[in-house]
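Exercise: predict the fold of this chain.
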Amino acid sequence: MKFIITESQKEKIENSIYKYIDNLFPKEINYEFFDEDGNVGAGQDYDSIDFMDSDWDSLFRIYFENYFKNSRNFKDKHKFPYIELENEFLSKLDGYFGDRWHSVFQNWFDDRFPELNSLKFAEFDKYKKPRIQNEFN
């Protein structure tokens, strides 16, 4: 069933999602740049960015194509930059909003990290990580 909503209703929904995202993540978020080997990157030499809370527990990561250059077939599956949220956040956002939170998250990210707002996500982690299949299955 399709519903037609007004622009005003759409804005209210997006504002509610934005507030939920803002309350879901801690107020203090640190981030570090990493190269493909997991070393802290310097300057423009990085392949991923890890966003962490004040205890340095991971919240979400942004991956760039170079991070996966040695991983077979990964670039066929995703567009970059690719963002991956920790499951506790992803499951809440997907559970409440489906994929409607993606564009709102981009706006929240731009507001929260203005120094990084040139990053526009090509894809979110909408697919669960595939389970490794045993070759005998």
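Check your answer against the key: The first helix runs from residue 7 to 24.
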